Amino acid sequence: MTTGSMLDVPPAGRTAAFAPGFGQRVLLTVDTEECFNWTAPFRRDGYGVKHVEAIPRFQAFCEGIGAHPVYLVDWPIVQDARAVEIIGDAVRRGTAEVGVQLHPWVNPPFDEEVCVYNSFAGNLPQALEMAKFMGLRDAIEARFSTAPLIYRAGRYGLGPHTADLLKHAGIRVDTSVRSLFDYSAGGGPDYTRHPLDPYWVDGAMRLLELPVTSVHAGRLRGLGRPLQRIGERIPRGMGVLSRLGLLERIALTPEGVSSEEALRGIDIALDDGLPVLVLSFHSPSLAPGYTPYTATRADVDALYGWLEAVYARLAARGVTTCKVTDIIAATGG
After folding, report:
1. Distances (CA, A) of 235 to 218, 230, 261, 333
2. Is 309 buried (19+), middle (13-18) or exposed (0-12) by CB count in 10 A?
């Protein structure tokens, strides 16, 4: 039985309830993927995974601040013995979790044209999306000796058949929705109307959507969604609104978002009662020269500074870290 598209805005009343005592928590997610040229066309080859040597420093840092990162790994990562060794050690020690991230252009079977539209896995034919996903999911379970419970579509590319696929595969949490963002210009999803709070994708409450956290800030944030739509239709409109202090969109990521902006976003999200804040960034940003956000070692150090500032604010606000299994248990799983 189908559940409808994960791209549909859920009806009122589908917001997930968390168990008493859960409080407000934070989940740190890492899109753990190959290095590639973000400005070039997609291709099946020419990537690398050398940056995984930077993950031990990051994992040690997380353990020092009490964070439990969720490594959302894709095909090139799960096929690399060193990456599996590094991440697998943390998973076995219970200090990290592993989930699924599908980059279809580097994930077999290779039956589709490599193009922007097909880089969103949800745009693929149903059978091909399933074949790619199940091959990756099964490889993760085999290499890490644990069944993944959480998914993020690469490029946030959910599709009309993804929900049924995830439930078939035993995935309990999806975190592909990036609320307030629109990827439709390239053929991807439009999430500008999706909720910020976790919600059930299906009426049977078998699949929880845990949106990546973004919030509106500014004097006119109460008009955030309609005002954002207006601002995005005007050249540089959102930049003008932000500079005037009227409206800005803050994503909780160290990639392109300053710590000062992030701290404002955290306070807004917590004051609005969001039960789980979902932080995110890409693993190649842990080493210099692989993403536009960390061109130098100083940029990498700044990423760690961002995390230190964010976790200090979260601690001051009484927010504690959580695991995917905690979220599943707290929502009745």
Report:
1. 20, 10, 23, 46
2. middle
Which structure tokens are listed for 114?
A: 């490599």
Contacts 24+ apart (CB under 8 A), 186-190: 186/116, 186/117, 186/119, 186/120, 187/116, 187/117, 187/120, 187/123, 188/120, 188/123, 188/155, 188/156, 188/157, 189/7, 189/120, 189/122, 189/156, 189/157, 189/158, 190/7
Closest Cα to residue 149, out of 76, 216, 97, 196? Answer: 97
b/e sequence 315-333, b meaning 16+ C-beta within 10 Å: eeeebebbbbebbeebbee
**Is the pLDDT reported for residue 269 higher than 90?**
yes
Q: What's the gap between Cα 10 and its chain centre?
A: 19
Given this model, what pLDDT does residue 1 score? 36
Residue 300 and residue 288 in contact, taking contact as beta carbons nearer than 8 Å: yes
User: Count of CB atoms within 10 A of residue 296's CB?
Assistant: 10
Distance from CA of residue 246 to its chain's centroid?
Answer: 27
Contact criterion met (CB below 8 Å) for 36 and 47: yes
End-to-end CA distance of the chain: 21
Distance CA 197, CA 210 (A): 7
Residue-level pLDDT at 4 = 57
Cα torsion through 117, 122, 126, 129, rounded to 10? 90
The answer for residues whose C-beta is within 8 angstroms of residue 243's C-beta and 6 or more apart is none
pLDDT at position 225 over 50:
yes
Chain centroid to CA 193: 18
Closest CA to 14 of 178, 205, 243, 216: 205
Q: How does DSSP assign 283-314, residue by residue?
A: GGGGSTTSSTT-SSHHHHHHHHHHHHHHHHHH
Average pLDDT over residues 92-118: 98
